[in-house]
Amino acid sequence: MNNNTPFTKSIALNDLGIENAKIHYQLSANELHDMTIASGQGIETSTGALAVNTGEYTGRSPLDRFIVKDSITENQVWWGKVNIPFDPTAFEKLYKKVTSYLSNKEVFVRDSYVCADPNYRLNVRVVTETPWANLFCYNMFLRPNEDELENFTPEWTLVCVPSFMADPAIDGTRQSNFAILDFTRKVVLIGGTGYTGEMKKGIFSALNFILPVNKNSLPMHCSANVGDKEDTAIFFGLSGTGKTTLSADPKRKLIGDDEHGWTSENTVFNFEGGCYAKVVNLSEENEPDIFRAIKKGAILENVGFKKGTNEVDFEDVSITPNTRVSYPIFHIDNIQPGSIGKNPKNIFFLTADSFGILPPISRLTPGQAAYHFISGYTAKVAGTEAGVTEPQPNFSACFGAPFMPLHPTTYAEMLSKKIQEVDVKVWLINTGWTGGAYGTGTRMKLKYTRAMITAALNGELDTVEYKNHIVFGIAIPQSCPEVPSEILNPRNTWEDKDLYDQKAIELGKKFNANFAKFEEFASAEIMAGAPNA
Known about the structure:
alpha/beta, about 25% helix
């Protein structure tokens, strides 16, 4: 559907329990942009993008994300600190309170779908309280055409009401905000928070259950692109590791920047219709594709401005370091038609190791790949959170634990099987520190990281000499085109080599301590991929 063309079909929401609402259905991106500005909920920036403030919450709230424990999920979900159970009766009552709250109000409704591969498509109806949240869903979910909308039947429903505050004593929540998945009702219910990422990750979490359980396909928190030879590359990584940046390669077509499925037919498809990128310290020089995508239709969240202007100051973190932009994927010039790739050949695990220990690039065995996938390591730098005065390891299983309803080894076994079946090369990329830890060393230059990834994709690292890391056992190339050889082995970049060895062992022990909770589920091959520490 055209970005500027309104759709005239009308719908009712009585089946959801929302009565007598003023429904704005399937508004265009421009209409939603204009309504946000007219209502005082956002401003237009110098590039034409919309800027909004998400309120109290500028990031996800993992402790307030629940899954209804019912006959579908009871014996399938990996219950614990990540997947917190919610009582079905309590959900029913809370759902009725939210839908009653929306009755007689103005709401914005969008029919969309996720999963670009038609064989895996899932129709989603979105009901939002604000026009800009609806615009976010226009950007991030896939957009049906008018013919598809005529007979659209939603399979899942997403309801997002930031102004509705739960009463924990009555509603069974932890506090006033919540994000709850119900697999029986097929509903994602969000309240008390305006952070748009909760909507995106709510649907992603649902797919992370549906695809492996019902569709024999691996869901992945990753970006993906494809080269001229139809070779697909997959990039796993937690926030801040460069997943969006590194997959936006002018020489390769972008499939998507964050969420994908890998099918039994050996294809990779994007879940989404857009990108959601961090913009802190964004520059056109370092990230030209993202920078240029920030134009009308894009939504900036929680950014600051240069004094007295509507020009964004990307270095301003006065509201949050988690400043963001969402935009439809067609804002990127070089995209893969249909958002589907074939023939995966390379997988990159991205980590921003602020300890300065891991090599900037290394090759992994299948066992090491499974070990590092389950570990999902990166490291927080000092100052990012209160009380963090030195680098802190951050392990998130499968590079996306907060969104994975099943046990991590379920996803790891699926990935390991695919790696071996189609002979995919797996690389560990450290986009973090070299020459020492954060505060002593420096961040790895983006141009070097890009050169290393390009060399891996082009097969230029297939014939070079490798040496194994002294603690992690991963294979380090001793040369790489357009990269100084001395930085390839991180030990060489440290002034105090003995201190490096000591810190490498310490980090290896942190890996093994984290992995202890997975050991009983892990094979001998996976355990052989552990650090020698």
